[in-house]
Amino acid sequence: MESFLKKHQPEMLKMIEKLVNIDSGSYYKQGVDQIGQILKDSYEQLGYQVKVDNQNKLGNHLIIQYAEAKEPQILVLAHMDTVFPEGTAKERSFRIEGNRAYGPGVIDMKSSLVTLLFAIKALQHNGDQSFKNVKIMINSDEEIGSLTSRKLIEREAVSTQYALVMEPARKDGSLVSSRRGKGNYTIIVEGKAAHSGIEPEKGRSAIEELAHKIIQLHELTDHDKGISVNVGLIEGGSSANTVSDHAEAQIDVRISEMEQAEIIEEKLEEICSTTDVSGTRVSLEGEINRPPMEKNKKTNALLRIIQDVGDEIGVEIEDTATGGGSDASFTSALGIATIDGLGPVGGNAHSDKEYLEIPSLTERSLLLATIISRLTYMNDNM
């Protein structure tokens, strides 16, 4: 398979260039669906059936399974959307400098879409029937919390034994074995407007009340326990000489263990149940929308198998934890053995310096193909 992949690396780069030069921000349905059509055509040419889960506002999701497959045990998760607005691809289109390729979404995760496709091609070329043991779920809204695809992922996952998630490998090549859970909340404060010079005593400042809440919220952070609460966006008021009658804040919450979710939510509700500025009202909206991906026995067992595969093909496999979220959290929470970061190596995702390490294309495609084969044919159950 290695020789096949090396031979086809120029073709892989050409497809990556094509995908990168198509805008596919989460809210740009036209571009996401264009990516989806390219992938649908590519998999159908390989004998796969592609079911399109149509969405009205966001891009459609793809569920891909070989026509003759019966109850595949390996679920592979990937996403088509990026964080970049329409027009970004034209402003800084795909380019190669030395051993790196650049462009919006090149590592998160358009290169992964291509390495996944070519891993399947390599298995077929090699006569390895394990390509039939794979169910592929490619969604359109991962970057905004998998709002419409979470239930679909969970539905497709329950009949499988392993989940391989195609987020990029870390800069040092490490895979991801645990992720913190994530929640998004909004605090809304209503006050009473008044002229700050003529009759300020008649006002009730929503901004002042929100300031008290922000301090209390940040005090919930406990880095030793893997808990962080960050007020990342605030807005309110109408003018500098008006006591504000409205203010709100967007809050990002991260947890390391699912048990922490209930504790944090109780504390958030407690903070919002009282006011420090008389005459103001506070309300709280939101939830934990991604459970943590915890490193458990099943994860460790799958990681050891992958490390054995790495030893076999000459790739040293290390693992790491990260605070960022991904769809790996959903499968892990269902009790399915899950490993993330199986895409190629790169870095600086979500920025204008995002890059792909080109030599990792062949290596990580081979790693993925060999993992699929090993999981299919091994006798020991996890």
TrEMBL record:
Domain called Peptidase M20 dimerisation: residue spans: 178-277
SUPFAM superfamilies to which the protein is assigned, alphabetical: Bacterial exopeptidase dimerisation domain (SSF55031), Zn-dependent exopeptidases (SSF53187)
PROSITE patterns: ARGE_DAPE_CPG2_1 (PS00758)
InterPro entries given in the database record: ArgE/DapE_CS (IPR001261), Bact_exopeptidase_dim_dom (IPR036264), Pept_M20_glutamate_carboxypep (IPR017150), Peptidase_M20 (IPR002933), Peptidase_M20_dimer (IPR011650), Peptidase_M20A (IPR050072)
Cofactors required: Zn(2+)
Domain of life: Bacteria
Keywords, ordered alphabetically: Hydrolase, Metal-binding, Zinc
Entries under Gene3D superfamilies matching the protein: 3.30.70.360, Zn peptidases
Transmembrane segments: none
Protein name: M20 family metallopeptidase
Organism: Bacillus salitolerans
Taxonomic classification: Bacteria, Bacillati, Bacillota, Bacilli, Bacillales
